Predict the 3D structure of the following.
Amino acid sequence: MNYTIIGIDFGTSTTVVKVKHYCEGMNPKDCQPLTFYKGNSCLPTLVFEDTGGQLYFGYDAEAQASAGTEGTLYKNFKMDLIGNNEQQTTKGKKLIKEFFKYIYSEFNQSRHRLNVYPTIKTYVSYPAKWTPETRSLMKQCAIDAGFGTESNVSGESEPTAAIYASIAIHLEELQKEHIVIKNQPINVMMIDMGAGTSDIAIFKFRMDNNNKPVIDDLITYPTVDNVYLCGGREIDRLLGDHLSDYVKRMSKNDQVPLAVPSC
């Protein structure tokens, strides 16, 4: 059976959608990216809402904000799903649902160019530490947007999705180096660092008799109950705080006032 796989990497700051075709009796074809403004394969995870309630997504959202249009630019709203502010969480859910609808409309317009088969399987990724409820929400957003039904839309933790994507790209090279041998498991550690969260996964990986990747004994960190996210924005904040404290200490020791540039 011939079918098309759609992989949706919905990131805190950037979203990427890849399309891959599987033809019976043939090796899988290379991934093709869903492209957006000016052929970009990365879509900024942004939503702009003007004062009339009109929503703009990705590059259009950037353009509206840059043009000085009255309204609100929403970013990092993916992380609102795990916050303690109920109002922000509700708004975040709405923005994600609308963002997925936009992605699907762009995909639908590109079906012919991407040579999409009638049979589709869709995978959407999410951080490893997200709860089952939040994971289900991501899957439901893809279903509601039009990517499929319960039977052909699945979710994968981000480190798991990352290893599947990496293996697809480097499999031939890994086999030539005898790192990956059919039905011989190897131990793998995958680190997936994003703007909102960083995930670590340790597992056993092997290729089965049908040359399909199999992951066993998967352990992920941080766990669902862990308070840390370890994303890029958290690390930026920590580095910024450390630098600010250092400058203040040095200025105080040297009795030099800390100059703050006006802008």
In short: The radius of gyration is 21 Å.
